[in-house]
Each structure stands twice: as structure tokens, then as C-alpha cells.
Design brief:
mainly beta; Thrombin, subunit H
Length: about 130
């Protein structure tokens, strides 16, 4: 019996969490509404209304979930560099991978939850992506 499955080496060095969270991506003076697909201590993958070019620096603001903090959910501001960005197809959002370079936890009184700033429609499992409503 031969094994036809390719040998894959896992390159990620940090645990990845599958979480759907609204976030605000700040890029070149604009705020782009988005939502996460997964995140770790070193990176994040999210879907946004607009593409952000590879290599660009972005600032991301969202509530870090309790699965990651091992305590309460906490507001955080992260800076990172776009590693990959897929141009959106008609009716879909752009998938963006960011390597996080720094982050800071924000005091609760400085953090306005993204859901109060912008409504992000997150597709239910099995549904296609829906447009973002404002």
C-alpha cells in the first residue's frame, strides 16, 4: 500500500483560532469594514470590502476574544503588513492575510465596538458571502 497524500510541513508557529469578529482595517486614511476568519498571536486572515495591496502596513482594531486572551475579551489595536490579498470577485469580499508586527490593548473607555461604528454581515455556514451593509 502506498501513501499518496503529500507530506506537508506545518509552518505556523502559533496556534490559530477560527473566529468570526468584526474589525476595522485602517489603511491610507480610510477605515475599511471587515471580519476575521482566523487569527493567532502572529497573524490574522480577514475579509474586507476592498483589497489592500501586498506589502502595505495596516492598523486593525477589534475585540480580542477570550479564547486568545484566556480571560475576558479585550479591545486591541494591531499593526501589521499584508502578506497576501486576493482581489474580490463580483459580489464577494477580498481575503487578506496580515503578519502582525505589534499590538496594544486599549482601555475600555477608548474603544468603541466596531459593531457600533459599522454593521458587517457575516455569512452563515453554507451561505455565500453577502455585501456589507452600512
Amino acid at each position: 500500500m502506498t501513501d499518496t497524500a503529500p507530506n506537508r510541513l506545518e509552518r505556523r508557529s502559533a496556534q490559530r483560532f477560527e473566529v468570526l469578529l468584526p474589525l476595522a482595517a485602517h489603511f491610507e486614511g480610510r477605515m475599511i469594514p471587515a471580519f476575521t476568519q482566523n487569527l493567532s498571536g502572529r497573524g490574522i486572515f480577514f475579509y474586507a470590502e476592498a483589497a489592500i495591496p501586498e506589502g502595505r502596513v495596516v492598523e486593525l482594531v477589534f475585540a480580542m476574544p477570550s479564547e486568545v486572551t484566556l480571560g475576558e475579551s479585550m479591545p486591541v489595536r494591531c499593526r501589521g503588513r499584508v502578506l497576501r490579498a486576493a482581489a474580490p470577485q463580483p459580489g464577494q469580499r477580498s481575503g487578506i492575510a496580515v503578519q502582525l508586527e505589534s499590538y496594544e490593548y486599549l482601555p475600555a473607555d477608548e474603544f468603541l465596538p466596531i459593531s457600533h461604528v459599522v454593521r458587517v454581515s457575516v455569512p452563515s455556514p453554507g451561505e455565500g458571502q453577502r455585501p456589507v451593509s452600512r
